[in-house]
Design a protein that fits this description.
Blueprint: H1 2-24, E1 27-28, E2 33-35, E3 43-49, E4 52-57, E5 67-73, E6 80-87, E7 90-95, E8 100-106, E9 114-120, E10 125-132, E11 138-145, E12 148-153, E13 158-165, E14 169-176, E15 182-188, E16 191-196, E17 208-212, E18 219-220, E19 231-237, E20 240-245, E21 254-259, E22 265-270, E23 280-282, E24 285-289, E25 296-300
Parallel strand pairs: 1-22
Antiparallel strand pairs: 2-25, 3-4, 4-5, 5-6, 7-8, 8-9, 9-10, 11-12, 12-13, 13-14, 15-16, 16-17, 17-18, 19-20, 20-21, 21-22, 23-24, 24-25
């Protein structure tokens, strides 16, 4: 009888242990590694392109023309400043070609209105600017195709669909309303994904929203708030969504990983992250700008 009880005891211990392992597998304490980059000032967005890291810096004085870009090697060396004195407060950006990027640039001196900027990183030149005078914090950019981009407006809870003609001019062709607290944006297989937060007072935030490129089908991708609800960046990689959450108080940021097909949360990556903003995920590496600390970090998957 005692042997039977003992055997049952070990079976229960084994089951509990397995359950603990399964429950903890969704939380991953991958340590973020610092990339030594000099000259950052509130880095908000990052992209790896042709072996170079491009970093949008909001700037730290709050004055006009304070924003800029840094171009560095993957190890952070050889920093080169781009567009110095020509941007106000650049947030998200996206590569249209190897040389041309579209930037969401907030104008601090006009009550958060802003410009969508087309710029050439090779020539270090601004091509054109599209003023959106009734915007209230332009935030992130993604390309839908070679001639179309989508830009989020956090304060107005909007997404603007913008046409690019001959890589030289910009025009709004559609505006999607009620994308509450629209922040980071990504595009995959015909669908736009937008993460939201309520730091500008919007309600119904902390969700991932999704809709078709023509604006139809808008709704919550998952009907629950993600993490603390302080969502910022989003990226698509290998049929997965990577979403940054600043966490409570912004001092314990994490990255949530979802399967696009099943919407299942696969992972919650934690560890030494503060104010993780608009990330890039490429070549099995997450590149992370931290606005409050001014640091650039990476996590290998």
């Amino acid at each position: 009888m005692n042997k039977i009880i003992l055997a049952l005891f070990f079976i229960i211990i084994f089951i509990v242990s397995c359950n603990k392992q399964n429950s903890s597998s969704s939380n991953n304490k991958k340590e973020a590694v610092l990339i030594d980059v000099e000259g950052t000032a509130a880095p908000e967005s990052i992209r790896l392109r042709n072996g170079k890291l491009y970093i949008a810096n909001i700037g730290n004085t709050g004055k006009a023309n304070d924003g800029f870009f840094l171009c560095v090697n993957e190890d952070g060396s050889n920093p080169i400043k781009l567009f110095e004195g020509e941007l106000d407060s650049p947030k998200g950006f996206y590569f249209i070609t190897d040389d041309i990027i579209a930037i969401a640039d907030q104008d601090d001196e006009t009550e958060l209105a802003g410009n969508v900027v087309l710029a050439n990183v090779k020539d270090n030149t601004i091509i054109t600017k599209l003023a959106i005078n009734d915007a209230k914090l332009l935030n992130d950019v993604v390309a839908i195709d070679d001639n179309t981009i989508a830009v989020t407006d956090t304060g107005k809870s909007r997404v603007y669909i913008i046409k690019i003609e001959n890589n030289s001019s910009l025009s709004i062709v559609n505006t999607i309303e009620n994308v509450y607290g629209a922040n980071g944006i990504a595009f995959n297989d015909g669908i736009l994904y937008v993460v939201s937060n309520g730091f500008m007072g919007a309600e119904n935030t902390g969700y991932i929203y999704s809709f078709n490129a023509d604006g139809s089908g808008l709704g919550k991708w998952i009907d629950s708030i993600i993490g603390s609800g302080g969502l910022d960046g989003i990226a698509v990689y290998n049929n997965k969504l990577y979403v940054t959450d600043w966490g409570e108080g912004g001092t314990n940021a994490s990255i949530y990983v979802f399967d696009i097909s099943t919407k299942e949360q696969l992972e919650k990556i934690e560890g030494s992250l503060i104010g993780a903003a608009d990330i890039d995920v490429i070549n099995d590496v997450i590149y992370i700008p931290e606005i409050p600390t001014g640091l650039i970090k990476k996590i290998e998957l």
